[in-house]
Amino acid sequence: MSDDNKPKLGMRAPLGLNKAVEVGKVKQSFSHGRTKQVVVEVKRARVLHRPGDPVPVETPPPAPVVEAPAPVTVAPPIAAPVAPAPVARAPEPAPAPTPAPAPVVAGPEPVAEASAPAAEPARAAPAPIMFRPVERAPAPKPPEPKVEAPASVAPPVAAPPAPRPVAATPAARPPVRPAARAPEPRRPAPVDLLTRQERQALLLRQAEEDRLRSAEEARIREEAARVGAAEVERLRLEEKRNAAEELATRPDPVASDTPQTLVELDEEEERLRVRALPGRKPELAAKPARLRVGDDRRQSGKLTVTKALDSDDSVRTRSLAALRRSREKERGRLGSQAKQVRDVTVPDRITVSELANRMAERTSNVVRLLARLGVPSAAVDEIDQDTAELVLTEFGHNIVRVSDSDVEIGMVGGVDVDDHLAERPPVVTIMGHVDHGKTSLLDALRGTNVVKGEAGGITQHIGAYQILTKDKHKITFLDTPGHEAFTAMRARGASVTDIVVLVVAWDDGIMPQTIEAIQHTKAAGVPMIVAINKMDKAGANAEKIRQALLQYDVQVESMGGEVQDVEVSATAKTGLDQLIDKIMLQSEILELKANPDRPAEGNVIEARLDKGKGPLATVLVRRGTLKTGDIFVMGSEWGKVRAMVDDKGASVKSALPSTPVEVLGLTGVPSAGDPVTVVESEARAREVAEYRAGVINAKRIEQEPANLETMFSVLRQAKAQVYPLVIKADTQGSAEAIAGAVNKISTDLIKAKVLLASVGGITESDVTLAKASGAPIIGFNVRANAKAREIAQRDGVALKYYDVIYDLIDDVKAAMAGQLGPELLENVVGRALVLEVFQAGKTGKAAGIRVTEGFIKKALRARVMRDDVIIYNGAIASLRRFKEDVAEVKSGFECGITIEGSSDVKPGDVIETFEVESRERTL
Ligand SMILES: Nc1nc2c(ncn2[C@@H]2O[C@H](COP(=O)(O)OP(=O)(O)OP(=O)(O)O)[C@@H](O)[C@H]2O)c(=O)[nH]1
Question: Residue spans with biased composition (Pro residues) (predicted)?
């Protein structure tokens, strides 16, 4: 074996005994620059001879056969006209009546046909070029040309390198058709004369012909079926169109609601026509793709795998995906015709994109609509419910309003039916001006002495007590403070009460808080009983009080009105029974009833933070029964009743309507006046409390709308100094009252800023907060713990303790005034008129003046005024009279002066001298 023929890895030449196989290499190029070396072999056809035939001398294959690739393209045109020539000029007839090679089998048919008569089986023709990986075509080899044929006319050999039996060129197609089967009659050759191989080749050719024929017939059948189906559809549509036209001419109100227009019918017809095309996408089938000139893929006899599989006369069916697409499209069409109306749930605020999503509309459409409605918004912007409703209406949907506040639904129970109602004690609030004897009166009624225990002898908390009358009737009393700072407490007292007892000390008369109490009572719409107190005092005159009340629209019975009145003395304990009688009478008139057999509802009267017990709330039960273990919500706080204490300090398990109790078990200190509701579960309680806390927080951070008024007020406040302070009190009501009172002290020059007003002792965090702003800490009935005291001392934070609100307010006022500093007052001491002006020195000017008022003093400050406008403010540098320096010139005299730094004095100006007095400031 030569070196050339040595097998190499990857490109091993085929093994062989002789040179029957020509081996070469071909470089194949692929995409992305990849190449591959392929071994190519040219195999000579093996020629069989009948016994007796002379064995031809083996001729080596002509060189051009292997080398010439060009004939592939020139073969068809050349083969047809040229092929017969060799036949005509054949010098010797075919040695044997060899059956003509089937024209359809061997490559370009004309070539095959042409070469058929001149088939030269004895000639060893070069086999077609084949790549090794390709399976050799089993089809018969193309007939060999005669050796005499000119080399340039070598189409037979140059015919398709890999003969594809069915792949005919357009030019070659006609012979495939039945009409082109001309050579068939020549087929019946004497079979017995053929060799076995020839018979085999013949049979193969016949089988191939049959197969192609049946494929062609199937194609024709398919075409006919398609045309037929299209025709049927056309007829059906025509009928439908006629029917629609007929309906349209008929006045049918139902049909007229959704008339199918002719355009729609046309569309439907088109759609159905498309459907009639088997295996076609509607949009593609709409085009006459099948009939396109030059598109021979479907009309040719080419056999593809799909076609082979479909070669039965079955019509190609549509793919599932195509069906789905078509259904979706159909659904889309129907959807656009009948728009779906939706019930869209809209919360208080909703983003534009979320609204679009809930409507199943495009966000861009909603944005566009909003711009048109004059509410330009982006997709992420929030719009309110009303705007959302406008949008929904435009799109034809319905709004279902929901709100975060829906969590409150059910927090106030329904009205109780009469059968469940039971009598309840009246709730009576004692109101009146400070020191008119409210607490004393209550003490007298209860047989206690609360007054003695009060700091400064004044009430600073709302108190709730219950008494038992001689007739075993219960009355609940609420004691309110009389000091002006406790307005909110009085308002709360009036709002939760059934009856107000207005205490007026006859000797003091109608005072500001008396008037305020009248107003609160009227606002609450509750009946009033006037108790004229201190009737034990000498010279008592109740009549003047009755008359004085008239001007506040309070008409007592003796004055022809409906308001009951009673003369009492808290210290002498007189008139108390009458007062009780009148309360009971009023109570009967009111028919006070409540359902005790339901979850409790009520109000927080007062709340505080106890060092040992934690947050505590005094609750007045309005209806239902509050029991230990109940889960409740109090404003933005919630909890579970751990224990209850009545007004006498006794522990109780339940509290009936109109009963005041102190409740333990809260998570935080609620606000006085907050509603109390017992709920079914902790989860519900937490949910409601969280919602309410969120609302309070949102209100706190909510900014006031910007307008001119607020802008100016902000500017004014910006100029004013700020006095920050931290307030810690024993009860929530006290903290609120102190904060309110301190805020009232504020002036245009200084403004109190309450950083914190809460209940409980002073802690480290309070000190830290105060330090950050340089604020003092006000402790009302509370003290700082040891740690807080230590930090306060270290950081220089002022701790101020009070137990009387008057003292507290007075001190805060003084501190605020001190921060402002002393007040400076100007006192004008003299005025003078400028008569003449002289040059004095290089730059200065001297003025000859006449003193018109008071006196002019050298040491005093002076201002120059022209037409009542101050043009200069300074001091008198020199004062002379008759060329002599003088200290003072009195009214009516003339003198000369120079003013420091002023050279713009003119005759006619007025010179005013004044003193500045420093005075301690008061607020
Ligand atoms: N002489 C006389 N003094 C009375 C009477 N009632 C109250 N006082 C006195 O008036 C003062 C104030 O009494 P309080 O009961 O504290 O008055 P109040 O209205 O409760 O005061 P505040 O709670 O601070 O608003 C006390 O010194 C009482 O002794 C009365 O009927 N006769």
Answer: 92-102
